[in-house]
């Protein structure tokens, strides 16, 4: 999570997702230079001119090929090195260079473009004449589904986003998920793990999202208008009458919005990849058969019911709190979040991280992840060389410092102490430390009991705390209620 009201400014249309082309040293892993491709979505491919002095970038969401002068880029400010943005067919995903010819492969244009770069190389002329040719003789998708897929990918449609930054495919490329956690607190929700659309057939698994806050795919009109900055597909009076995502339906009001829903609905079980955990002939392995027995014995199917492996309903509500809700889980439509919509287990190996907030990085971690209370570091008492840094944090570091404050543990023996920490119902639990440091060690003391902790290097640059990890300490004995003392000491 790098932006959102839990840690700083909210997501906006310019800063939910940005397209950046970066050069990184394979030896050191350090960033050498970067181009912020303004007002753009999803750079999918790049290629260099024969001399390496020009860079071509396929912008999937904008149906364009961006051309950069790399020699000028070394000294130019912002986008000063941009020489041209050339129109291509729909959703360019490939680009290659052969002599003076530059080619783009356009997924949803079902076409290729050929551009002549001879004048660019000879005289710096940015206008490259181009021709487009069909690359498919037979269309396999139904017309409505193809139309919806084109809408799904196109960020430059002003109905979709205000400046070409965002489309549905920005996070759900090919209907999949981006593996990221988003702070949607500003949308009346909380930390949310991106859900894959593949295998769910639109509304085939009941209401959508972790909080089951939409009851039709057309409800994404709300996100398009309120988060993407798009003008929307409905008329303003239509949206005013249907803005409640659980109220009056939007289906049938706009053909393009219905086409978008038709494409999402087309992503049924046939779009799921074959499991790498099955035998080569597709049969269930002996180990998986043992796991199936455990699954059935423990009653997992009572919630994750085959064949959908969820019992999420379209009518009614079935939110369950299995103990993973935290302060950062936020709300449901701005109100109370009583539980989480039961996720499907289909395609599980390919959809990490897990749980609604991504707090389980692996499947094994799912069975130990729990909810709890977030205690800000700055609410503790620093002593013996530890201190709170809360001045100009967003300028000196960045917005990954939550609450615009952090605590530095200085030399060996420096401490950060907390009192009256709530241990819930008490018993054996876990404590997670969010930290940003080189390899180091601390001692966690809870009610006087010591737990040594080794912290791995997070890979910060020398000048700032911008990379963060979480260290989890299991087996911690907690007292019930706000009766616990916690001390973190540098060792």
Q: How many helices does DSSP assign? A: 9
Distance between the termini: 29 Å
Overall morphology: globular
Q: Assign the structural class, choosing from mainly alpha, mainly beta, alpha/beta, alpha+beta, or little secondary structure.
A: alpha+beta
Strand order of the largest sheet: 15-18-23-20-21
What is the chains' assembly state? Answer: single chain
Number of E strands: 23
Largest sheet: 5 strands, antiparallel
Strand-residue proportion: 25-35%
Low-confidence stretches: none
Structural domain count: 3
Percent of residues in helices comes to: 10-25%
Care to describe what's here?
There is one protein chain. The mean pLDDT is 93. This protein folds into three domains: 19-134, YVTN repeat-like/Quinoprotein amine dehydrogenase (Methylamine Dehydrogenase, Chain H); 171-361, no CATH class; 377-490, Jelly Rolls, CATH 2.60.120.260. The chain contains nine helices and 23 strands. Helix content is 13%, strand content 26%. The chain has a five-stranded antiparallel sheet with strand order 15-18-23-20-21, with no helix packed on it. The chain has 491 residues and is of the alpha+beta class. A hairpin with a 7-residue loop joins strand 11 and strand 12.
């Amino acid at each position: 999570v790098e932006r959102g009201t839990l840690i700083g400014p909210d997501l906006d249309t310019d800063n939910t997702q940005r397209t950046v082309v970066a050069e990184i040293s394979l030896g050191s892993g350090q960033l050498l230079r970067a181009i912020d491709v303004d007002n753009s979505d999803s750079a999918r491919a790049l290629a260099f001119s024969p001399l390496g002095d020009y860079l071509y970038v396929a912008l999937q969401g904008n149906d364009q090929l961006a051309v950069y002068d790399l020699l000028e880029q070394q000294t130019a400010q912002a986008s000063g090195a941009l020489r041209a943005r050339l129109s291509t067919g729909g959703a360019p995903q490939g680009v290659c260079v052969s002599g003076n010819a530059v080619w783009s492969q356009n997924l949803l244009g079902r076409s290729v473009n050929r551009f002549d770069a001879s004048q660019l190389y000879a005289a710096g002329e940015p206008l490259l004449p181009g021709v487009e040719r069909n690359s498919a003789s037979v269309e396999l998708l139904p017309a409505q589904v193809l139309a919806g897929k084109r809408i799904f990918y196109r960020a430059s449609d002003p109905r979709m986003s205000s400046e070409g930054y965002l489309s549905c495919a920005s996070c759900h490329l090919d209907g999949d998920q981006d593996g990221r956690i988003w702070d949607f607190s500003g949308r009346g929700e909380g930390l949310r793990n991106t859900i894959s659309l593949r295998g769910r057939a639109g509304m085939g698994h009941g209401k959508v999202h972790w909080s089951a806050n939409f009851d039709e795919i057309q409800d994404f009109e709300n996100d398009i208008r309120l988060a993407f900055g798009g003008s929307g597909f409905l008329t303003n009076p239509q949206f005013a009458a249907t803005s409640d995502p659980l109220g009056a339906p939007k289906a049938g009001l706009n053909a393009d919005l219905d086409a978008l829903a038709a494409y999402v609905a087309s992503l049924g079980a046939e779009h799921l990849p074959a499991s790498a955990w099955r035998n080569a002939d597709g049969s269930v392995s002996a180990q998986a058969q043992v796991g199936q027995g455990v699954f059935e014995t423990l009653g997992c199917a009572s919630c994750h019911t085959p064949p959908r492996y969820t019992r999420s309903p379209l009518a009614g509500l079935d939110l369950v709190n299995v103990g993973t809700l935290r302060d950062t889980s936020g709300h449901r439509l701005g109100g109370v979040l009583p539980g989480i919509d039961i996720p499907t287990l289909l395609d599980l190996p390919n959809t990490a991280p897990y749980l609604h907030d991504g707090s389980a990085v692996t499947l094994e971690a799912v069975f130990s992840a729990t909810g709890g209370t977030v205690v800000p570091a700055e609410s503790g008492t620093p002593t013996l060389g530890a201190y709170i840094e809360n001045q100009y944090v967003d300028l000196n570091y960045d917005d990954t410092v939550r609450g615009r404050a952090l605590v530095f543990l200085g030399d060996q023996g420096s401490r950060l102490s907390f009192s009256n920490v709530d241990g819930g119902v008490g018993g054996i639990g876990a404590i997670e430390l969010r930290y940003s440091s080189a390899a180091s060690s601390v001692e966690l003391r809870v009610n006087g009991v010591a737990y040594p902790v080794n912290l791995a290097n997070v890979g910060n640059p020398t000048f700032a705390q911008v990379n963060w990890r979480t260290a989890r300490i299991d087996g911690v004995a907690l007292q019930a209620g706000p009766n616990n003392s916690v001390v973190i000491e540098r060792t």
